[in-house]
Amino acid sequence: MAAGREPKVAHRRPILAFVVAAVVAATTAAIPATAASADPAWLKRLFTQEFEEDFQRTAQGFTPNHWPNSSGQQARWVLSKGEGVRDSAGVAGGAQRFRVENRPEGADVHLVNPHSFVRGQAYRVQFMARAERTTKVDLFLRRDVRPFTPDASKTIEVTREWKSFTFQGTYTAAVAGSFRIGLQETGVDVFIDRYAVFRVTGSDRIAPIDIPAGMDATEQTTLVHDVDFEGEYTHGRYARGWQPNDPSNRADAFEAGPETRAGYFVDGTTSQRFKRETYVADNKVLESRAELYYSFTCQPKKKYRVTAHLRADQGQTEVPAQFGVRRAPEPYTFLTVRNLKLGGSWQPVEMDVVCVQRAGTGIQLRLTVGQVDKNIYIDDLTVSEVHDNPAHPVGTGVVSDNLFGIHSPLMHNPNWRWPALGQHVVRLWDTNTAWRFLEKDQDVWPWDDGQYGKRLDQTFMKKLIQTRNTLDPKLKIVYTMGETPNWASSKPDTPNFAAAPPKNDEDWKDYVRTVARRYKGEIDVYELWNEPDAGPRADGRSFYSGTPERMAQLARLARDVLDREDEEAILVSPGITTGGVSWLDRFLAAGGAEAVHGVGFHWYFGTNPENVGYIDNIRDVMRRHGIEHKKLWNTEGSSSNCVGGVGPCLNDKVAVCLKDGACDAAFCAAEPGNCREVNAVERRSAVARALLLMAGRGVENFNFYTLEGSHDAKLLESAATSDYTTPSEEGRGYSAAADWLRGGKVLQSYIIRDDIYVLRIQQGAQQHSVLWTTGEGVRVRLPQQWNAGQATTLAGTRVDISADRELDLGLEPVKIAS
C-alpha cells in the first residue's frame, strides 16, 4: 500500500520462510559522498539522494506512509530538511529529518523509499544516520500491499555521531515495494544522509524462491474499519463514513439520523436510523429508492468479513432489509448480500466476501429497508480482512468425474463423434430442447415427427445413450429446464413470453413429469432454469422475468415430481451468473435451499481463472442457508470473453488488455494497442488452471461452452468440418488437466506471494504437484520432501528436474512427478 492507510494488525498470520539475507554494519568513520565511479563491479547503483536540493518536508524519492488505529487515530510526525554530514572543509550539507511526535497504540508512520524491485533479486541500501540522542531505528525491505511481511528487517542503534549503515535483502514479491525506516521512540529527531540503493549483481543470478511443502490454513484477521456510530453525524443525519444514495435527490424521500433511545444501541449511546418514505412528483405518489452506503477499500482477490447489528422498531416483525457488499459503478451487482427480516430486537449479521472486481473499482456496503415508512437501525459495524490460505482445498474427497463436462450444440452434424478429451458430462443447452420447443401446443409432444421433439429424442439423447453404452459408462446428461411455451406463459402476449414463469402450476408439473418419465435413468441431472438473474440481452429479452420466490415454488414442484418419477435424478438450482448472489440468496430463503440437491452457477473466467472468489462468495451464501454440504455445479462457463461481452475481446477472439481502462470489448476496439489477442500458452493454460482451481474449491461439475461452434473459445479446431479428433489449444489444456486430476484427491492447495499457485494431488499410490505463476516468469526451488523427478507441461513436454531442485515457472502449469 502506498502512502496512506495501513490498518492495525489485530492478529498476525503465520509467516512462511523465504530466502532472505539481511546485513547491517555500522562504522563511526565519516565517508565521502558516494559516487557511481567508486562502486564495486558487483553493485549496480539504482538511486542516490544527497539531500542537497531544496525541499520542505521530504526529499525526492521519499514519502511518509502512515496508518490509523482501529479508532481512526493517527500518529503525528515531522519531516523536514536538516543539517547533514560535514565535508572535509567542515561544511554541512542537507539531510532528511524524521521525527514521530505522538503515536497512539496501533497507529504508526514510516519514512518510505519505494522502488520497482524485481522478485528474486538482492538489493542493498547504504546511508548515514545520526539522532539527537541514542535511539533504536527499524529498517525494512517490504512490499507495499498486504500481506505486509518484510523480506528483510533489522533494528539498528543510531547515536549522536554520524554512522554509516548497510542493509541488504532479497526481494520475493511480484509487486512494487520499498525500503522503510521506522522510529521506535517518539520525540527524537533522526537524520538521514548520503543515501543510495544498489542491485547486488554478483554473477547476476536471481535467487530462486523456495516453495514450502505446505501452508497452514489457520485463519487470522486484521481490523480494517470499526464504525461505532457515535460522535457527530454529518448534516445531523449520517454517521461517520456513511452517505445517502437517492435517485430522486429529494430531502423528503427518506429519514436518517442518530438514534439514542434506550435499547436502540448495542454499545455506546447511539445507532444509525434509516427510513424510506413516499413522496409526490408529477402528481404521482412514488416510493423512495434511497439507500445508505459506506465505501471501503476492498482489494481484489482478498477476503473480508463484515459484521454488524440491525433491528427494526419495537413490536415490528419481519421488516425486510437488504445489507450487502456491492460494486459502486455499473453493473451494480452485489458481491455478497443478506436479505433480512428484522424484528424489534438486535440481530447480529455476518458475511464473508472475496473482492472479485477489477482493481480500481469502488466497493460499498449498501443498506436499505424493503418497506416504506419502516425504521431500521444499524450499530457496531466492523470490516476485517481475513488472512488464511485462500486456496485451501474444500473437502477431502476424490475429484468428481462430473467436473469434466462440455456443451455440444452441433451434435446433429453427421460427422459428430465423442472426442477423447476426458469429458464425462454433456449439458443440453442452446440445443432447442427447452420446454417451449418440446410442447408448443398444450399436451402435444411430437417426439417422432416434430422438429424439436425428434431432435431431442433421435439426435441428442440417442447419440448420448449410445456413447454411454459403448464408450463412456460414466457419461452424465444435464438437461436444462424452463423457457415457458406461449400457451403456458403468465405473459403470453409479450415478445419475452418464454422468460415468464408458467401461470398454472399443473402445466409445469406435467412438463417435468413428461420429460422425467420418458428419460428415466437417462437424464441424470435437471437444471431448473438458465441464468434467471441475467438482465435483458441486446434484443430486449431475458431468460427469466419472474421473482426468485416464484422460482423457489417451481423448484419445490419439480422436486416433488422427480422424487416420484425418477428418484435417482438430481435437481440443481438455476444457473446464476456471477452477478446473481442476491438472486440466489432470495431463492434459497424462499424454500429453494430445501428443494434442490445442488446449487448451479455460471462462470466465464476469461484469462483470469485465479479469480475464484466468485465461487467462495456463492459458498458463503450456501453456508448462511445451511446447505454448505450440497454440491456446487458450474453448469456453464469457459475462457470465452466475447460471448455476452463479459471481458476483453478483439477480432472476435479472447484478448488481454495492454493499457489501463474498462478492459472490455469496447475498450479493445477503441484504439489499436489497447489489447492483443491471447497466445497459445494463454489459451491452453487458462482452461487448465480453471479446472485445477475448481477441483481445489470442491466444484462438482464444469461444462465448457462449447466443444465446437464459432465462439472464441472452443475445445476442438474446425469441429464442423473435421473428424472431431483435433483439439484446440483450449482442448489440449482441458485434456491435460483432466488427466492430471482424474480419480485424484487435492491434498494441498496454496498460493505463494500472491501469484505462485501450488497443488498437491494424490492419484492412487502416486503423488504429484502442479505449479504455475500469474506474474512474470520466476525461478523456484522445490522442497526436498517432494523427491521431484520430472516436470511435464500441458503440451506434453518433459524436463528432468536438476539436482538443485530449481525450476523456471511461467503461466503454463507444470506437473512435478514425485
UniProtKB/TrEMBL annotation:
Keywords annotated in UniProt: Signal
Signal among keywords: yes
Start and end residues of each Asl1-like glycosyl hydrolase catalytic domain: 474-640
UniProt xrefs under SUPFAM superfamilies: (Trans)glycosidases, Galactose-binding domain-like
GO molecular function terms noted in the UniProt entry: hydrolase activity, hydrolyzing O-glycosyl compounds
Signal peptide: 1-35
Top-level division of the source organism's lineage: Bacteria
Name of the featured protein: Asl1-like glycosyl hydrolase catalytic domain-containing protein
